[in-house]
Amino acid sequence: MKKFFVFAVAFCFALSLSAGLKTSVAEAYEKAVGEIVNGVIEVEFADTTDGFDERENSRLDTVLESDANSLKSFIYENSEGKLSVRSEIVGKVVLDEPSSYYTPAYKSIKGGYQLVNEVGYDNRKYDADGKVDAENGMISIDYVLREQEFIRKVFAKAEEAGIKAWEKPKLSSVTFVVGKPVDITVDDGESWGDIFWPHKSNVYYGETSYLSDAYYSDGESVKLEKVYFDGSEVENYLLVAYSSLFSGGKPYTSILCHEFMHVIGAPDYYRYDEGDDPVGNTDIMGDSAKRLNLSLSYLRYKMGWIEEGKDILAIEESGEYALEPTENSPEVKAYKIVLSDYLKKDGEEFSVGDCYYIECRKTASGTGLIIYRVNEKNGFIGPDGEYSSINYGNAYGDPEVYVYRDWVKRPFSSEYYPRSEINVGSLNFGIIYADGIIKSYGGKDENKNIVTDSDGNNTGVSLKITGYDRIAERVTFQVEIPEKSEGKASDLKFDFTSSGVYFDSGLRKGFVYLLESEKELKDVGYDDIINSSDVKKIPVSFKRVRLSGKEGYVYVFADDGNERGQIYSAVYAKDSKKGCSMLLLGVGLPVGAVIISAGIIILLAKTAKRVRNERK
Predict the structure, then answer these.
(1) Per-residue pLDDT for 294 more than 60?
(2) Is the pLDDT of residue 214 over 50?
(3) Which of 261, 403, 464, 493 could make an SS bond with 372 (beta carbons 3.0 to 4.6 A apart)?
(4) Rounded to two decimals, what is the model's pTM?
(5) By CB neighbour count within 10 A (0-12 exposed, 13-18 middle, 19+ buried), where does 93 fall?
(6) Alpha carbon of 70 to those of 64, 238, 245, 364: distances in Å?
(7) Mean pLDDT across the stretch 103-127?
C-alpha cells in the first residue's frame, strides 16, 4: 500500500509546481470547516457498459454516505463536527476508449520491462540521456498526460450528456468512480501507481515543462487548458476504482478517507522512501491501509478542528494528569509540552522547535497513551531537501511528526534501539497500555525508551501510568519535565505574521489573552479583552496563537499570575489588488507601522496609538 501512496501523492505535489496551483497552508485548510458537497461521476469504458446498476449504486452510497464507517461519518467525527461531506452521484459517462488505454503499457520485470498492453501509456523510467533505467530513472511524463486526458474526456462526455453539477454556486469536490472492467483490490500489489489506483490529484494546466524536474519527457512541452464542469473551474479531484472500495465484499473506506483528507489540505505522515515509519497507524494520514483511525490531535489542530488552550492543554511543570480516549471526544484531547525557550525566525515565519504531545487512544488491544514529537518546520521540507511553502508532512527529510515506540534489545548486547515501525493493523509498539506490561516511557536512562529531540538528544521527559478507570476509560499518569527558569509578563514581546502571533521569553507559566475585533476598540483595557466572549486564552508555553484571518483589529497581552504585560495592538487587513493577507502592526509605543505581505515588509510613516498599560 505504501508504494501506491508514494506514487500518487508524489504526482499530486509535482502538479503543484504550476504557479496557478500553488496555495498557502492557510488557504488549503479553508475547506476544512463547513460543508463540502462531493459530486461523484461514474465512469465506464467502451469494453463494458453494464456496470453501476441499482445494486452497485446502493453499495457505493454505503461507502460514501450511509455506513457507520463511511466517508461522511469519518470526516464528521475526525473534524469534531466542524466539517460535513455530502456525496451525490451526479451522473454516469461512457468513454470511447477501452479501459486498457488508461492502464500501463509495460510490466516491470527483473532489470527491465515487458510490453503487455500496446495501447497503454508509457510507465517506464528513463535516465537523463533518455535511456530506460528501471532502477534509478524518472518515470515518463506520459502517465501525467494520459490521466489529464482522461479527466478532460470525462468532463467532455458529461457536458454532452447534459450532466450538471450539484447545488450552486460553489463546486466543492469531484470524485471519479471507475467501474468495470477495472479490478483493483486493496491487497493488490500489482496495480500500485496505475491511474486507477485510488488517489487525489490536481487538474494541471499550463505548459508541461513545469514537470521536467519530476518526470522524464523528450523535451517537448504540451499546453493544457483549465477544466470546467457546469461553469465552475475544477482544481482537484479524487479518482478511485469501484472495486477498491470493498474488501471481502464489505465496505472499505480507509484509503478513500485518507485521500479525501488531502482534498481539504492534510499532508501525508508516512515516508515517501522505504525508511522509518514515523506515525504508523496512529493517524489516518500515516500507514492506515488496514485501519480507519482518527487523526492525531496535532493534525486536527492544524486543520482548525480543535483549539490550543481549550482542547489541547499545556504541561508547564511536573505533576499528575489524566486523559480519556480521543475517540470518545473528551473535553481535553491532548497535552502539549514545549521545552524550548526560543523562537527561530526564517523570513517572516517562526518555528517553535520541538514540541511534545501526549494523548489517549483506543485499540483492539486496549486503551493507552501515545507520546509524539512535533517539529512544524520539518513539514515544509521538499524532495530537494530545501524548505518550501508546501506542507509535505513526513514525506521528506526529518519528520514533522514522530510517535515514540517500544525499544528492543540488540542481540548479545546491552543496547536498545527503537522499532522502525508501528505495527501494521494496530497501534502496538507505539502505545503504553493501561493494562499492559510497559507502563512508563522516557526519563534520564540513556539505554532505552528515550524521549529524544530532533537531534537525538534525550530530553529527560518521562511519563508513567498511575491509574486507570475502566468505566470512564480515563488514564491517569505522572509526567516529569526538566526544570526551567522563570520570566516576567513584562518581558514578553510579540511578533506578528499573516498566520499568527508569536511570543518568546523566559516566561514559562501564565497566559496570553488575544482578542480579534471587527471594529477598533477605544481606550481598550485588560478587562475589555478578558471579558470578551471572543477572547482566546493561550498558555504562554505554547509560544504562539493563531489568527482567524478575518480583517479587523488585534489586541494581545500576557499575564504571568503576578503582573500583566504591555497591551499590543495590530490591524489585520487584506490587499485588494494582490488578494493576500497583510498585517498593520502597532504597539503601545510610538513606532512606525509595518505591513507584512507575501514576505515583503513595507515601513509606513505612521505613529501607533499608545495603549493603556494597567497593572493588577
Answers:
(1) yes
(2) yes
(3) 403
(4) 0.85
(5) buried
(6) 5, 16, 10, 20
(7) 91
